[in-house]
Specification:
Blueprint (H helix, E strand, L loop, with lengths): L2 H31 L6 H21 L19 H15 L6 H6 L5 H32 L8 H26 L1 H4 L10 H20 L6 H5 L7 H21 L6 H20 L9 H27 L1
Helix pairs in contact: 1-3, 1-6, 1-8, 1-10, 2-6, 2-8, 5-10, 5-11, 6-10, 10-11, 11-12
């Protein structure tokens, strides 16, 4: 096996694991938190079906990456740093740090110009998600306290709505972040059936592990936020997140960090809820949690910049 093939294969496998264990846990986190009574394998089957359907449709359409890699060509030769990026992700995932898979992985494949576009789009996504979430939950909290029990007559309706919202979100997330694994594969119609089946099998297997471990370490960032274990809160969070991702998918084909959008969404939501139910109190209770999330996110950005400098120097 050539070194290029070794580095490419290693990077591909580790990227597949890191994407599912890090980014998708944030996408499916509220779903996992609010459906603890449902067997893990049932959730796995449903979300795996959406994954297989989404990727198969994209592959048959000629681009499994949903055009996210139009500005990022496949390298002629894979180098050690192409395997280093997902390796770092793997380590940070084990520590429960929600870094951006998109920025950290794609930084070693992108030109500085494309990386600037990725960072700009991700920053805009963070800000827009925070503003939208703050405004929406400012209105929501005027009409209901998400911590209140859902009336028995509404439980089934909210449960169905949540599964639908999560399915919609999962589909939108895949359209963005699957590029972080597909970046190691042949582009467009050059991806043959055998490699595509291996690609899907890896993702489905890692997704099963995610549900079996109830979200792993990254799940802690979801559980630290107000009410995310409640079906009503989880439904609203997932639906708003999905709409924002849909907007940015249609906005341009430049990849972006869904992690930044997710953290921005939870930040805006948390501030709105705190303002509503803690009037007259200082924000010192909620600020450390939000600051910690932002610092963890910034860690991934710093590592990406370091990687870019290393790559440009070799």
């Amino acid at each position: 096996m050539s070194l290029s093939l070794l580095f490419g294969t290693t990077g591909f496998v580790m990227a597949a694991y890191a994407v599912i264990a890090n980014d998708s846990a944030q996408t499916l986190g509220t779903f996992i938190s609010s459906n603890k009574e449902t067997a893990w394998w049932k959730k796995w089957i449903v979300m795996s079906s959406i994954l297989v359907g989404t990727l198969t449709y994209a592959w048959l359409s000629g681009d499994v990456a949903h055009e996210r890699l139009n500005s990022i060509p496949l390298p002629i030769t894979f180098h050690w740093y192409h395997a280093l990026a997902p390796l770092l992700l793997l380590g940070l995932t084990r520590l429960g740090i929600p870094v951006s898979t998109t920025i950290l992985t794609l930084s070693v494949f992108s030109s500085s110009f494309v990386l600037q576009k990725i960072l700009l789009k991700s920053a805009v996504g963070y800000g827009l998600a925070a503003v939208v979430a703050y405004g929406l939950w400012f209105l929501v909290t005027k009409f209901l306290n998400e911590d209140d029990e859902v009336p028995k007559s509404q439980e089934k309706g909210w449960r169905v709505a949540q599964w639908l919202a999560t399915g919609f979100l999962w589909h939108q997330w895949l359209a963005h972040d699957i590029a972080n694994v597909a970046v190691y594969l042949p582009r467009g119609t050059n991806l043959d059936l055998g490699l595509f089946v291996i690609f899907m099998t890896l993702l489905v297997g890692f997704l099963g592990r995610l549900f079996y471990t109830h979200g792993g370490k990254i799940q802690e960032i979801v559980q630290s936020k107000s009410g995310t274990a409640y079906v009503r809160s989880a439904t609203i969070v997932d639906f708003v997140y999905a709409i924002i991702l849909l907007y940015f998918k249609e906005y341009s084909d430049i990849p972006m960090s869904t992690t930044w959008v997710f953290v921005g969404l939870l930040c805006g939501r948390e501030l709105a809820i705190y303002r509503k139910f803690n009037k007259g109190k200082e924000i010192t209770e909620v600020f450390p949690v939000l600051a910690a999330d932002f610092l963890k996110m910034s860690l991934g950005l710093a590592l990406s910049i370091v990687l870019v400098f290393i790559v440009s120097a070799v």
